[in-house]
Amino acid sequence: MAFGTLISLSLYFIVMLLIGLYAYKKSTSDVSGYMLGGRSLSPGVAALSAGASDMSGWMLMGLPGAMYISGVSSLWIAIGLVVGAFLNYLIVAPRLRTYTEIANDSITLPDFFENRFNDKSRLLRIVSSLVIVVFFTLYTSSGVVAGGKLFESSFGLNYEIGLYVTASVVVVYTLFGGFLAVSLTDFVQGCIMFVALVLVPVVAINEVGGIAEMQQSIAAINPELLNVFSKVSSDGTIISVSVIGIISALAWGLGYFGQPHIIVRFMAIRSVKDMPTARRIGMSWMIVAIIGAMSTGLVGIAYVAKTGIKLNDAETIFIVLSQLLFSPLIAGFLLAAILAAIMSTISSQLLVTSSSLTGDFYQAFLHRDASEKQLVLVGRISVFLVALVAIYLAYDRNSSILSLVSNAWAGFGAAFGPVVIGCLYWKDMTRNGALAGILSGAITVLIWIYAPITINGQSLGAIMYEIVPGFIVCSLAIYVVSKLSPKVEDSISEKFDEMLTHHN
């Protein structure tokens, strides 16, 4: 590894740890401060934190790799994500910030669901918490795997060492600094990702002779790479993008309504009045970043063809361009952007999982009268334990953990998305309706992924992304069961009814 690259990465790690130290002294004396930063995030921090924790390594590795292999047909996923993120800011964010505070200052989604419906049985909390803990432990592991492989492929380090370096830095600032540390580091990481995703494609396009030259070069290789209605497979086969395929790609946007690590940022922003500012910042960041990621993949096709370099893995195109086009010092900064994307998501997932273990299991069932200091301590222990499990799972390099990322996105979107929207907009929704929605949405996604059912030789997941049927089934279950089950009235539900009547 070049000395300049090592300097850049070392500075990055030091900054992350210093932010963790600052947050440790600032807002970790009580559980609300540790888990939600005291609901005091500025709109800029909340927006970039949501964006950075959302995109992960997918933005710098997955999307450029998809564009490199399949061409511009991958644009449909990007469109779905942008529309979904915008609607999430518009539909969910303002009401969730207000209503979670009304619902006994709820700091987790399971906490909010239980308080929203006055669920004395605690069944709603248990089921939603289990969904979060199981999926996010696997989700976290996928990020640790990505970090391990990045260190191995870029720096020549042992894969296992990469796992521990990635996880250790994230665990330290998350464990001590809590939500504020995660959000502030996400803000810095979001800025790094933004600069990287503008810098790399601009320099690469200039290197191949400009946009027109890039398009001509790609068309000479395969004109279908520039056709939004044609998908090029890894073996060069041309596949027409069907209507169902477009719907499946666009449906990625539905996942936003149910992602705990994203919508928790809306719960933590300091005021509802800051939401429009957060939306403008967040959406501007996302649109520029996605355009940069897609451009990186496309210009990579032209650059590889022009230079004749060998690219073993399409998802490493960002890394390859960073190392070939820039000095070691700048290349280190750009590799730090990939680490930033990976770490921002791992830290968010660790904290959300810790929140569920602390508030939804320990306090709810084991020690209801636990002090604030005890809860913060349990939260820190939970972060450490979840990280250990994630590292253990990541040791199996041939496991299917990475493939679970898209499955987890669908699982959260289908299980929680319609429930969150129903909580915020439909006053006749009941606890049984919410419970039926979570269970049916999650089960539908699992059946769609794992059931040995094929149509014309294709699995259900290959025909349509599992979030589509999961979201529909969850919504129907909420409506039907809510109509058939009685609603429990209490002071909180009455406040909700009044606000929903006023807002609607």
Question: How would you describe this structure in keywords?
Answer:
504 residues, mainly alpha, Sodium/glucose cotransporter, two-stranded antiparallel sheet, 19 helices, 77% helix, globular, transmembrane, L-proline transmembrane transporter activity, transport, cell membrane
Please explain how this structure is put together.
The protein is built from 19 helices and four strands. With 504 residues, the protein is an all-alpha fold. The chain has one domain: Sodium/glucose cotransporter. The chain is globular. The termini are far apart. The mean pLDDT is 80. Catalyzes the sodium-dependent uptake of extracellular L-proline. It is found in: Cell inner membrane; Cell membrane. Belongs to the sodium:solute symporter (SSF) (TC 2.A.21) family.
Question: How do you describe this structure in short?
Answer:
Belongs to the sodium:solute symporter (SSF) (TC 2.A.21) family. The protein has 504 residues and is mainly alpha-helical.
